[in-house]
C-alpha cells in the first residue's frame, strides 16, 4: 500500500489570513491526498514545537516568522514550504501575497476617492511590511499621486503605539489617505484618529490589508481592506510540498499570489473633491452602482444638467460618470466571482445586468478574460 504522507502545519489559527491558508491546504488534500495532518494550537511567531525534533513526518508547511523558527525547521531535515514573508532572505520555497499587487490596489482605491495626500503606517518587525510600504509609495508616484509619507511606531504597548501614530497623523496634510500595513495596524490608526480628534474618512481615510472581516467590522468606523487570496496561497504551498516529498526539486524561490480586490467600508467612504455636487454623485454611485444605477439615476439624486455633470465629473476625476459606474459594477462582479459560487447569470442579475451575455462582453472588454476565466484564475486553486 502507498504510504500516507505525514505533514505538520505550523500555522496559527488566530487570524483570518492563516485560517484561509489552512482552507487552501485542505482543498488541495481533498483533491490530491490523503495526508495525515498534524495541526496544533500555537500563536503567531511561536517557537518550533519540541515534538517536531523527534517526529516521524514527511514535510512541513509553516509560517516562518523569525530566524529562530527557520533554524529549528532546518534542523529537522524535512521539506519545508514557508507561507510567511516575514524574513528578508529566503530559507525555504515561499508562497506569499504579492506586495506590489496589494499596494497597487490600495493606491488605486485611495486615488479614486480624489485624495492627493498619502501616507503609510508600517511595522518594522516584518519584511513584508517594508515591501508593502515601498510598493505603495512607488504606486502612488507612478499613478500621479505625488509623495507618500511613511511612519512606523516603536514596538511596545498598544496605547503607546496609538499615541505615537496620533502625533504623526497631526503632522500630515489633510485630507490624507493612509494605508496600514495590515488590519490590526489599521485598527490602531483609527484609534489614533479618535485620540487626535481627526474625523474618518473626511480628514483621514484608512485602508488595511488582509480583510479580516470580523476585525474590520468591529473597527469604528468599519475598516476598508485589501482582500488577499490566502486560500490559493495555501493550495499552492500544499502542491509545492507534495512535489518536495515526492523527491522532486523545489527551488528556493518566492511564489507570489495576487490579491483579489478591495473590500470597501466606511473608513474610505468619501469623495475628496472640492466640488460638493460631484462628491455627492460619487458617493451615490458607490452605493448604487452594483444595483444597476445609471447616469439618469445619478442626476435624480444630485440634480444638475447632464452636460454639467459630465464636464465637472471629468474635471474632478479624469473620467466620465458612465465609465465610473461601469468600473464600480465590474469591481462588484469580481468580488462576487471570488467570494461566492453563484453562477455568472445570477451575478449578472445581482449587479444590474439584464443579460448574462452583456455582462460577459463588458467584463472581457474591461479585464481581457471572461468572468469564468477570471474566477478560475483568482479562486483558491493552483494556476
Q: How are the strands of the largest sheet arranged?
A: 2-1-3-4-5-11
The CATH homologous superfamily name of the largest domain equals: Response regulator
- Which H/E pattern describes the elements? EHEEHEEHEHEHEHEHEHEEHHHHHHH
> What is the helix content?
40-55%
Distance between the termini: 30 Å
Give the low-confidence spans: none
Report strand %: 5-15%
CATH topology of the largest domain, by name, is: Rossmann fold
| Number of helices, where a helix is a run of at least 4 consecutive DSSP H or I residues | 15
- Work out the count of structural domains: 3
Radius of gyration from CA coordinates: 23 Å
Q: What's the story with the biggest beta sheet?
A: 6 strands, parallel
What's the total number of strands?
A: 12
What can you see in these coordinates?
The protein is an alpha/beta fold. It has 15 helices and twelve strands. The chain has a six-stranded parallel β-sheet with strand order 2-1-3-4-5-11. Helix 1 (16-32) packs across helix 8 and helix 3 packs across helix 4 (127-142).
List the main descriptive attributes of the protein structure presented here.
3 domains; six-stranded mixed β-sheet; six-stranded parallel β-sheet; Rossmann fold; globular; 13% strand; 15 helices; Arc Repressor Mutant, subunit A; alpha/beta; 383 residues
Amino acid at each position: 500500500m502507498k504510504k500516507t504522507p505525514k505533514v505538520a502545519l505550523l500555522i496559527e489559527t488566530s487570524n483570518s489570513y492563516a485560517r484561509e491558508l489552512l482552507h487552501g491546504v485542505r482543498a488541495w488534500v481533498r483533491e490530491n491526498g490523503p495526508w495525515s495532518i498534524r495541526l496544533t494550537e500555537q500563536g503567531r511567531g511561536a517557537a518550533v514545537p519540541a515534538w517536531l525534533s523527534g517526529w516521524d513526518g514527511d514535510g512541513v508547511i509553516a509560517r516562518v516568522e523569525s530566524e529562530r523558527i527557520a533554524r529549528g525547521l532546518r534542523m529537522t531535515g524535512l521539506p519545508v514550504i514557508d507561507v510567511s514573508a516575514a524574513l528578508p532572505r529566503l530559507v525555504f520555497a515561499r508562497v506569499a501575497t504579492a506586495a506590489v499587487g496589494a499596494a497597487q490596489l490600495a493606491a488605486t482605491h485611495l486615488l479614486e476617492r480624489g485624495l492627493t495626500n498619502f501616507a503609510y503606517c508600517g511595522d518594522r518587525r516584518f519584511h513584508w511590511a517594508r515591501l508593502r510600504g515601498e510598493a505603495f509609495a512607488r504606486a502612488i508616484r507612478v499613478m500621479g499621486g505625488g509623495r507618500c509619507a511613511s511612519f512606523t511606531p516603536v514596538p511596545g504597548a498598544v496605547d503607546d503605539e496609538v499615541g505615537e501614530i496620533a502625533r504623526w497623523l497631526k503632522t500630515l496634510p489633510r485630507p490624507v489617505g493612509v494605508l496600514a500595513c495590515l488590519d490590526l495596524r489599521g485598527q490602531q490608526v483609527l484609534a489614533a484618529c479618535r485620540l487626535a480628534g481627526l474625523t474618518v474618512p473626511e480628514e483621514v481615510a484608512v485602508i488595511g490589508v488582509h480583510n479580516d472581516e470580523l476585525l474590520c467590522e468591529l473597527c469604528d468606523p468599519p475598516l476598508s481592506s485589501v482582500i488577499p487570496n490566502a486560500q490559493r496561497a495555501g493550495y499552492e504551498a500544499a502542491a509545492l510540498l507534495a512535489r518536495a516529498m515526492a523527491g522532486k526539486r523545489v527551488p528556493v524561490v518566492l511564489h507570489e499570489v495576487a490579491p483579489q480586490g478591495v473590500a470597501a467600508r466606511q473608513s474610505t467612504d468619501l469623495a475628496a473633491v472640492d466640488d460638493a455636487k460631484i462628491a455627492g454623485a460619487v458617493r451615490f454611485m458607490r452605493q448604487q452602482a452594483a444595483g444597476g444605477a445609471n447616469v439618469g439615476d445619478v442626476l435624480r439624486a444630485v440634480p444638475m444638467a447632464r452636460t454639467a455633470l459630465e464636464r465637472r465629473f471629468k474635471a474632478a476625476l479624469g473620467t466620465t460618470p458612465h465609465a465610473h459606474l461601469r468600473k464600480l459594477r465590474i469591481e462588484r462582479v469580481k468580488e462576487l466571482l471570488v467570494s461566492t459560487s453563484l453562477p455568472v447569470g445570477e451575478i449578472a442579475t445581482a449587479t444590474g445586468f439584464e443579460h448574462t451575455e452583456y455582462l460577459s462582453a463588458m467584463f472581457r472588454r474591461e479585464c481581457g478574460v471572461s468572468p469564468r476565466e477570471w474566477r478560475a484564475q483568482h479562486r483558491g486553486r493552483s494556476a
